[in-house]
Design brief:
single chain, 831 residues, mainly beta, Ubiquitin-like (UB roll), 6 domains, 16-stranded antiparallel β-sheet, 35 strands, elongated
Length: 831
């Protein structure tokens, strides 16, 4: 039977599901569909293609000229299917344009899917659009098909679901571009709706542990409660799955090694809230029984037992066992005992060899291996700081035995430099077990370390402007090397500081300082020099009053080896020359001059882990500053009472003692740690001669924000929040002082470009005119809250609100007992 209708031909040739066709011209209606005939492809042409070459489309079909095909036959169907699989076309048609003998000539006609010209968002803030664009990865020229639309919708929904918006809706509208043919513009409408929060977390089957303790084990999955001020109650499926095992870990810590979650479900209460049900099977509680060491030859079992410190009958806690075996933060664990002595290939494998009733026997199988020697040390990531600055702080050297303690100490020393991001410092040991060596790679990330100070303030009845710069990674030897100015010579670890303060002609102060931390480059002996000049004046002409100060200092510091190398000793000599004219209103004498030649000795120990947001360690310092006891060399019958104030202070003499300590203790958390900082300080200013009395220089002033202001007489200004500046000391200063501080700190951001943490503090302190009146328990107390922001360019900025509990001595207390304090700079281990 012969059929000439094209529609009937399609019915026999192709599945109805294919939106394509094979057709013949009317002149070719002599094909017998009941008896397919074999033809040789005589030629293939392509029509309708705009973005693809004809040859590319022909290649996709698998047809080649000279190939034999049956018509009708499934080869045409397969060719059309292959083209559809590319998801590039709206319509596909393969036509037989002519037949010459046994040769058939085909035409492939396609209609391409539209191309993406551009896309835009609707309902998304500009700040979020950049992240979304990166997420969906749409590019101009992409083929816009159903898969692209669905994938884009799913990616956007997943993006917002990951942030707690479970009810996000996405609608993508296609519009033909009016200029570019076969191109479309996509408008992506997004409605993320309200964030989905967790109304409740219900725990069932927990008879031994309270639900509250189990909920708290999931640190980032919290119920919607008023008291959850540090965490947002949002439901994120991936975060929930990540935190859920912490419930079982909490059980394991209490001896329930077989505890398991038998079921859990998350269900919607409404569009804004979900609830979580968790069912637990606790199992039995287990205890340690016998613990046996196997394979240890370097250290005895008794020695290892002391470090492990797990007694028979103790609750079976796998976390405790692992912390005593591996990488304890305190360094007191079995692996550290071996790793600190070169046994890099050491392994210990705890195996449960017997479980009887509620008791478990553990066998600790040790492979000690050989000691590893350090082969090569490399440093990567230092784009600004020179290698020698880093290498001199590295405690590991080629040829030495591997030591974990030395690596940890190196990380601490590199963090203390202040040039690198302490959160990304990394060490990559690359062991070679065959030859018993290890290469160590230290990875650092440079951060800005230079600082600029530009501020204005009010003091002594006038506006004071300050401009200062500190180059903390300076290179003096490249000062005259033009190519090194990018923008300044840097990378040698030296510190250069310039600072100027002025309120016009009434007050001016200029300071210069330079520090070389490794004098000579071989040993950590530092050299510091400074120059300063200040002048404060009132009035003009003959009635003008002023005080001028010229200062110079030089100091040498060195790192000690005994008691340990956290100790340092610093010695400094300084000289200040004072000139006064008609300045008696705020000074001990009004006209004349004074010489202050002093020597300062600082014996200190600093083991703080990092300078910006410390989590552990301490700083302790004992400082003695003194002058020459000139009065000891004067005649014994010298009448000091007959001298004028200027004559008595022509050569200033005193001895000043200060003791300060600061301790950092990690309370909870690893990276974002809640940290307790406790500080205390004592100070005493004494005289060599009781007839001269206490020196008018170097006195203590307690209270307020601690900003230096007009410290021309060498006064030591000590902050105590909640009280006004200097209100806890006499007008002329104090000879004795004590201060106690406790701060609880929590970081909001540890980004090196802006480290931010909040704090709650309690402080107490007092000062006295005479040492004999000092009472360290008679103090003025305060408490409050604050925030600190460290920006590399500006240093540490602080804002505190303090409430004082005690009345200011000798003053009528105002109605308000609160003070707002703003601070610039400051030290983590100072007063």
């Amino acid at each position: 039977m012969k059929i000439s209708k094209i529609g009937l031909f399609l019915f026999f040739l192709l599945p109805i599901s294919l939106a394509a066709q094979f057709s013949l011209n009317n002149a070719l209606d002599d094909i017998n569909y009941a008896n397919p005939k074999t033809y040789e492809i005589g030629g293939i042409t392509v029509s309708g293609a705009e973005s693809f070459s004809g040859q590319a489309i022909i290649s996709l079909t698998g047809f080649i000229v000279g190939q034999e095909i049956k018509v009708p036959g499934d080869m045409i169907t397969k060719a059309i299917t292959k083209l559809w699989e590319q998801k590039l076309f709206n319509d596909i048609e393969i036509r037989a344009v002519k037949i010459e003998g046994n040769k058939i000539f085909l035409n492939i006609n396609v209609q391409e899917l539209p191309r993406l010209y551009k896309f835009k968002f609707k309902g998304v803030k500009k700040g979020k659009q950049k992240a979304l664009r990166e997420e969906i990865s749409l590019v101009t020229g992409m083929v816009v098909n159903e898969n692209l639309i669905i994938n884009t919708e799913n990616k956007i929904k997943s993006y917002f679901v990951a942030k707690g918006f479970l009810n996000t809706q996405v609608n993508i509208i296609q519009e033909s571009d009016t200029v570019r043919q076969n191109s479309v513009v996509l408008t992506i409408e997004v409605d993320r709706n309200k964030r989905t929060k967790i109304k409740d977390i219900n725990i069932y089957g927990n008879n031994s542990l309270k639900s509250g303790k189990l909920r708290r084990s999931m640190k980032d999955v919290k119920r919607k409660r008023i008291y959850n001020i540090f965490t947002v109650s949002k439901y994120i499926p991936s975060k929930y799955e990540e935190e859920k095992p912490n419930i079982i870990k909490k059980y394991n810590e209490k001896g329930y090694r077989d505890a398991q979650i038998v079921s859990d479900s998350v269900y919607k209460i409404n569009k804004k809230l979900v609830a979580i049900d968790i069912t637990i099977e606790e199992g039995s509680k287990y205890y340690f029984r016998n613990i046996k060491w196997v394979g240890n030859t370097i250290h005895s079992s008794n020695e290892l037992d002391k470090i492990l410190d797990i007694k028979k009958g103790a609750v079976y806690n796998k976390k405790t066992l692992e912390s005593r075996l591996f990488m304890n933060q305190t360094g007191r664990d079995v692996s550290s005992l071996y790793l600190d002595n070169g046994y890099l290939f050491f392994q210990v494998n705890p195996v449960e060899v017997s479980v009887q009733n509620d008791s478990i026997d553990i066998e600790l199988r040790i492979y000690e291996g050989k000691q590893a020697t350090i082969n090569k040390i490399t440093v990567v990531g230092n784009e600004k700081t020179k290698d020698h600055v880093i290498r001199r702080e590295i405690r590991t050297s080629p040829g030495q035995l591997f030591s974990r303690a030395d690596i940890i100490r190196t990380q601490r020393e590199l963090a203390q430099l202040g040039y690198f991001n302490p959160e990304t410092l990394d060490v990559k040991p690359q062991p070679n077990q065959e030859d018993g060596t290890v290469d160590i790679e230290y990875v650092v990330e440079e951060k800005p370390s230079d600082q600029i100070e530009l501020s204005g303030g009010w003091g002594a009845g006038r506006v004071i402007g300050t401009l200062g710069v500190s180059f903390n990674n300076f290179s003096a030897k490249n000062l005259f090397k033009g190519s090194a100015w990018r923008p300044l010579p840097a990378g040698d670890g030296q510190r250069l500081s310039l600072r100027a303060m002025s309120s016009g002609t009434g007050f001016q102060s200029y300071n210069f300082s330079f520090t070389e931390p490794w004098l000579g480059g071989r040993k950590p002996n530092s050299l510091s020099v400074s120059l300063s000049h200040s002048v404060q004046s009132f009035g003009r002409g003959e009635t003008r009053s002023f005080i001028k100060m010229y200062g110079i200092s030089a100091g040498l510091g060195r790192r000690l080896k005994v008691p340990d190398d956290f100790f340092t000793l610093y010695n400094e000599a300084s000289y200040q020359y004072y000139v006064l004219q008609n300045f008696g209103s705020s000074f001990v004498f009004s006209d004349g001059f004074a010489n202050n030649l002093s020597f300062r000795h600082v014996f200190s120990r600093n083991s703080i882990d990092q300078p910006i947001y410390p989590r552990s360690g301490s700083s302790v310092s004992l400082t003695l500053k003194h002058t020459i006891p000139y009065s000891w060399f004067r005649p014994s019958d010298t009448d000091y009472k007959a001298m004028t104030d200027q004559e008595r202070n022509k050569y200033v003499e005193y001895h000043k003692w200060t003791f300060q300590t600061s301790w950092f203790t990690r309370i909870i958390g690893e990276k974002h740690s809640l940290v307790l900082n406790t500080k205390l300080g004592f100070g005493y200013l004494g005289s060599f001669n009781s007839e001269l009395g206490t020196s008018p220089f170097e006195r203590f002033f307690l209270g307020g924000d601690g900003l230096t202001g007009f410290a021309l007489d060498g006064r030591e200004i000590i902050a105590l929040r909640g009280y006004g500046n200097g209100t806890l000391s006499p007008r002329t200063g104090a000879a004795a002082v004590t201060k106690y501080t406790a701060e609880l700190r929590y970081p909001f951001s540890l980004n090196p470009s802006a480290t931010i943490y909040g704090l709650v503090f309690g402080e107490a302190g007092n000062s006295w005119v005479n040492f004999k009146d000092a009472n360290p328990f008679q103090v003025n107390k305060s408490a409050g809250v604050g925030v600190r922001i460290f920006m590399p360019m500006f240093g540490l900025l602080g804002l505190d609100w303090g409430y004082r509990f005690d009345q200011i001595p000798g003053r009528t207390d105002p109605n308000s007992r609160t003070e707002i304090h703003f601070s610039i700079g400051g030290s983590i281990n100072g007063w």
